[in-house]
Amino acid sequence: MILGQVVGSIVSTQKEKNLTGKKLLIVKAIDLDGSLLDSFVVAVDIVGVGINEKVLVVSGSSARQTQETKDRAIDAAIVAKVDSYTFEK
Amino acid sequence: MFYAKVIGNVVCTIKYKGLVGKKLQIIQPVNLSNGKNSGRFIVAVDTTNAGIGDYVGYEDGMEATWPFEGDDVPSDATIVSIIETVNIYNKE
Predict the structure, then answer these.
(1) Tens digits of per-residue pLDDT, B26-51?
(2) Does domain A2-81 have CATH number 2.40.50.220?
(3) A72 has which bridge partners?
(4) pLDDT at position B91, please?
(5) What is the pLDDT of residues A21-55, one digit of tens each?
(6) Which domains does chain B have, with CATH numbers?
(7) Which residues of A touch B73 (CB under 8 A)?
(8) Which spans in B1-92 are helix H?
(9) Cα–Cα distance between B5 and B24 in angstroms, integer?
(10) I need a labelling partner for A24 at 20 to 30 A (CA). Which of A17, A57, A79, B27 fits?
(11) Do A87 and B26 lie within an 8 Å CB cutoff?
(12) Chain B contacts of A82, Cβ < 8 Å?
């Protein structure tokens, strides 16, 4: 999983049928010090997070390993809202 | 399986139900041949109870969900072993 911060959302009306009702959020990767990095992904939110919150994003086929994303055109999913983290460099 | 060092952990209360009760660790992939960090850190589900500073083996991609068999655990990185020693022969 990558650590990221929600920086925006996406509105799309014409989309694959199995994506209907899914919330699409733009998540930017963050460094351990909390600074935003350049890379970002558009991920489906399955836990209900808000803007500016720190989240965990699962990518690839593992993102389809949930009831909400199984057999859908999804390769990135927000699976947790991060409360805190500790680290030693 | 890839080689990494545990450098931290993550606390989440709101998470997908398949991840409830699973320990989340921050790991830094390490190049086996020179011991240097390779690439950015990742967050991995821990099946071994590793601690900060331990060297571990982890699976990434779809293989990361295999330790959980039939359960819906959305993980793209899973720690599957704690590594005590590494022996490399014919090191150039």
Answers:
(1) 999 999 888 899 999 999 999 999 99
(2) yes
(3) none
(4) 63
(5) 999 999 999 999 999 999 999 999 999 999 999 99
(6) 2-82 (2.40.50.220)
(7) 65
(8) none
(9) 14
(10) B27
(11) yes
(12) 10-12
B13 touches A at CB < 8 Å? yes
Residues A59, A64: Cα–Cα separation, whole Å: 9
Residue linked to tokens 């005590």: B84
The residue extents of the domains of chain A are 2-81
Distance CA(B70)–CA(B73), nearest Å, equals 9
Between A84-88, B74-78, B85-89, the lowest mean confidence (pLDDT) is in B85-89
Question: Of the candidates B24, B92, B46, B51, which has an alpha carbon nearest to the alpha carbon of residue A57?
Answer: B24
Average pLDDT, chain A: 95
Question: If you search the block for the tokens 């989340």, which residue do you land on?
Answer: B24
Given an 8 Å threshold on Cβ–Cβ distance, is B76 in contact with A69?
A: no
Q: What is the pTM of this model?
A: 0.92
